[in-house]
Structures are given as C-alpha cells and as structure tokens.
Prior knowledge:
Elements: H1 6-10, H2 18-33, H3 37-50, H4 56-67, H5 71-83, H6 89-105, H7 109-122, H8 127-151
Amino acid sequence: MSGSTPEAVALGFSGTDTRRVRLLGESATLALYLGEADRAEEIFRAIEILAPEEPVAFHGLAELALARGEAEEARRAARLAQGAFRADASGVALGLVLEARGWLLEGARAEALACLARAENLDPAGPGAAMASALAHELAVLDETAGSEVKR
C-alpha cells in the first residue's frame, strides 16, 4: 500500500494517497516534455518506491523509454503498469497502448495491433481505448497510403 515504505512515511504519504502520486506523475511528465529526461526518471523512480502498487510510475517509465528509443524497456515498464495492484481497466488499457508503441519501435505491427485490440476491448469507453483506437486508425491509414504508393 502507498505509505507503507519508510520513504513514503517520511514524506507524509498515508494509505493510498493517489492524489499526491498523480501530482508527482504529472510533474515527472512535464519534466519529460520539457526535455529533462533525467529529472523525469528520478521522479518516476521515486514514485515507484513510494507507491509500487500504483501504475503511474510504470506508465511514466514506459513513456521515458519510448522517448529514448528503448523498445524492450518500454514494453517491460508497460507490462508492470498493467500488473500493478491498483491498475484499473483504464490503467491497464494505457499500459497496453504503451506496450503497443514499444512493439512499433521494433516494427512488430502484429504484436502492436494485438495490444491495441486488447486495450479497446478492456475499457471501451475509457481514454486508453480512445488512444488505442486512434493509434490503430493511424496505422490503417499508413497501410492504405503505403498500398496506394506501391500501386503507382
């Protein structure tokens, strides 16, 4: 549980303090978007220590690995997010989208599409499904475009 580690207790975390965990996750994501990857990693690693049952750190570490072009590490972190104790359907679906993006870095479209389909089915009305649907659509458009280029 969040707050059960000595580090979490020292920082004032208690019980399942998801609000603080999410705020830290947002801070780390902002650091990543501002080009401060090392700082983002420090924060995501801290979240992993403070709240290992939350998927937030693993989602962030997957995003970080994707930004660095580390496909295998991205998939590993995405799978940890999917298996996190407090991962709800939306969190698992986001983990599947991140795993799919890791597969795409290596050109493994079939594996990526399988992850996207699972995400869409798992949480049909959630944000993870919307992201999965958008990415699958973009892949289909790319396939159509490539097909029309070949026919010319």
